[in-house]
Amino acid sequence: MFIEMKNVEFIYGYKTPFEKKALENINLSITKGEFIGIIGKTGSGKSTLVQLMNGLLVPQIGDVFVDGINTRDKKKVKEIRKKVGLVFQYPEYQLFEETVYKDIAFGPQNLGFSEEEIKRKVKEVCDLLEIPHQLLEKSPFELSGGQKRRVAIAGILAMDPECLILDEPTAGLDMRGRKRIFNIIERLHKEAKKTIILISHSLEDVAMLCERVIILSKGKINFDGSKHQAFENVELLEKSGLLPPDILYLQHRLKLKGFKIDKFEYSIEKVADMIVKNLHLPFVEEGDGF
Ligand SMILES: Nc1ncnc2c1ncn2[C@@H]1O[C@H](COP(=O)(O)OP(=O)(O)OP(=O)(O)O)[C@@H](O)[C@H]1O
């Protein structure tokens, strides 16, 4: 087991008059190579959950293990951070150096990589994340939203973690920016074989990318299973304060209208193909632009 949570409870402001229980009774096992989506209403505990996964937060009750290491073990913090990299929801929280180069180099420097290795790593992650090398001497604050996100991801990837956690990596980006980030994440999973944990408010994005889905509701795990079981169960989603992805809603409606749908699809391209196939219109021909 790569990440394991046992009976975890987390309380902000513990033993103060401002105590706020954010998570309770969390039991979770994640194996290497998985691609997991974490969804849930605002305030359901998603960000808290992932901060527990790399030891940024430590539970008051229960234990979290990363590759067998208890995250309470202060001597092993670096080792844990090297295994599990967390990209924050707001890139501004992560970018603080004078230049993009220094920001990306910060993590590997901290882990004691040599100057040569750092240079090589920075180049490698910039190529992977499509960050033009002329940006390296700029201040991170001169960058566009999409560039900032890619630099924030690059800074974490430069430490070469086995698992990458991304908290809302596309918030505030336009369609093109989102697609670009998702293509990169998919490549990291398929080609670089990284374990990916993605928090997103967009159920469409989670449905398209992930296989396993965890639904949080009021600090508890409401569901943990396949995306099909999660997204095709409208009652479960509604109980968790979520709406089914539009793409599934459309297919439910089409099915009611007599469309033959054996299996729900999660990408717009596949649904479009299915609709075209079902239409049987004599005037629709291959290659007419639609
Ligand atoms: N630093 C903090 N101090 C006190 N309470 C906090 C703190 N951070 C989060 N909380 C509370 O803990 C609960 C869980 O918050 P968390 O940020 O983990 O939820 P979330 O699902 O990630 O929300 P969002 O989707 O809005 O990012 C919420 O009730 C939140 O108000």
Automatic annotation (TrEMBL):
<dbReference type="GO" id="GO:0043190">
    <property type="term" value="C:ATP-binding cassette (ABC) transporter complex"/>
</dbReference>
<comment type="function">
    <text>ATP-binding (A) component of a common energy-coupling factor (ECF) ABC-transporter complex.</text>
</comment>
<keyword id="KW-0813">Transport</keyword>
<dbReference type="InterPro" id="IPR050095">
    <property type="entry name" value="ECF_ABC_transporter_ATP-bd"/>
</dbReference>
<keyword id="KW-0547">Nucleotide-binding</keyword>
<keyword id="KW-0472">Membrane</keyword>
<dbReference type="InterPro" id="IPR027417">
    <property type="entry name" value="P-loop_NTPase"/>
</dbReference>
<protein>
    <recommendedName>
        <fullName>Energy-coupling factor transporter ATP-binding protein EcfA2</fullName>
        <ecNumber>7.-.-.-</ecNumber>
    </recommendedName>
</protein>
<dbReference type="InterPro" id="IPR003439">
    <property type="entry name" value="ABC_transporter-like_ATP-bd"/>
</dbReference>
<keyword id="KW-0067">ATP-binding</keyword>
<comment type="similarity">
    <text>Belongs to the ABC transporter superfamily. Energy-coupling factor EcfA family.</text>
</comment>
<dbReference type="GO" id="GO:0016887">
    <property type="term" value="F:ATP hydrolysis activity"/>
</dbReference>
<dbReference type="GO" id="GO:0042626">
    <property type="term" value="F:ATPase-coupled transmembrane transporter activity"/>
</dbReference>
<keyword id="KW-1003">Cell membrane</keyword>
<dbReference type="Pfam" id="PF00005">
    <property type="entry name" value="ABC_tran"/>
</dbReference>
<dbReference type="GO" id="GO:0005524">
    <property type="term" value="F:ATP binding"/>
</dbReference>
<dbReference type="InterPro" id="IPR030946">
    <property type="entry name" value="EcfA2"/>
</dbReference>
<dbReference type="InterPro" id="IPR003593">
    <property type="entry name" value="AAA+_ATPase"/>
</dbReference>
<keyword id="KW-1278">Translocase</keyword>
<comment type="subunit">
    <text>Forms a stable energy-coupling factor (ECF) transporter complex composed of 2 membrane-embedded substrate-binding proteins (S component), 2 ATP-binding proteins (A component) and 2 transmembrane proteins (T component).</text>
</comment>
<dbReference type="InterPro" id="IPR017871">
    <property type="entry name" value="ABC_transporter-like_CS"/>
</dbReference>
<dbReference type="InterPro" id="IPR015856">
    <property type="entry name" value="ABC_transpr_CbiO/EcfA_su"/>
</dbReference>
<feature type="domain" description="ABC transporter">
    <location>
        <begin position="3"/>
        <end position="243"/>
    </location>
</feature>
